[in-house]
């Protein structure tokens, strides 16, 4: 099949259409379940044009995954790298995580599924070569605050609690909605109200004697 080389004028528009379509399909179906033909159809192009831009499904997925990671965790990493006192950082982390997840409610489940099937993505796209690792820096910060007597907490356990308390309502959202007959709006309101509870639980868990 002949492929018409796109001009500089429409190149960005075509690429943006592909990215938008790919994001929709990958978030719904994951890497394994996504079909390139559906992505091409949604983007309004043929598969030859899709191949011209991204060569393979894996290349397209990696690009989408990286952009989603940067969007979802950009603010969290900013919090983790900040100079906030440790207690304020814990509170800010929970707030930013929940707010970001409310804006993108399907992402937590998507990440968990893809990391389970493709664990190498975690090293390749979150712990990028040559970059610092905000979560590991935060772990060290917790350990230092613990040594100074400012808090009392096992760093690994605290981080696991922070992530699980914030993420689980989104991962299990459909289950909770069915279990308690909650509408989308009711579930969102419940998560917002729960944020204050999560923050207090985390602060209580690190109280020094």
User: What name does CATH use for the topology of the largest domain?
Assistant: Tetracycline Repressor, domain 2
Query: How does the overall form come out from the CA principal axes?
Result: globular
Query: How many structural domains can be distinguished in the coordinates?
Result: 2
By DSSP (H or I, 4+ residues per run), the number of helices equals 11
| C-alpha-based Rg, rounded | 20 Å
For this structure, what is the CATH class of the largest domain? Mainly Alpha
Fraction of residues in helix: over 70%
Structural class of the helix and strand makeup?
mainly alpha
Provide the CATH architecture of the largest domain. Orthogonal Bundle
GO molecular function, one term: DNA binding
InterPro entries: Homeodomain-like_sf, HTH-type_TetR-like_transc_reg, HTH_TetR, Tet_transcr_reg_TetR-rel_C_sf
Pfam families: TetR_N
Keywords: DNA-binding
């Amino acid at each position: 099949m002949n492929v018409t080389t796109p001009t500089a004028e429409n190149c960005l528009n075509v690429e943006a259409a592909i990215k938008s379509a790919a994001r929709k399909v990958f978030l719904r179906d994951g890497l394994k379940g996504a079909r390139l033909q559906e992505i091409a159809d949604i983007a309004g192009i043929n598969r030859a044009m899709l191949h011209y831009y991204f060569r393979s499904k894996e290349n397209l997925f990696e690009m989408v995954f990286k952009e989603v990671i940067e969007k979802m965790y950009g603010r969290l990493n900013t919090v983790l790298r900040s100079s906030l006192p440790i207690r304020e950082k814990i509170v800010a982390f929970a707030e930013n995580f929940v707010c970001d997840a409310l804006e993108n409610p399907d992402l937590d489940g998507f990440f968990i599924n893809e990391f389970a099937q493709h664990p190498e993505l975690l090293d390749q796209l979150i712990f990028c070569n040559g970059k610092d690792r905000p979560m590991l820096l935060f772990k060290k910060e917790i350990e230092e605050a613990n040594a100074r007597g400012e808090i009392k907490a096992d760093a690994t356990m605290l981080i696991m609690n922070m992530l699980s308390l914030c993420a689980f309502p989104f991962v299990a959202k459909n289950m909770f909605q069915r279990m308690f007959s909650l509408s989308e709006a009711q579930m969102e309101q419940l998560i917002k109200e729960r944020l204050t509870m999560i923050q207090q639980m985390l602060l209580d868990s690190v109280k020094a004697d």
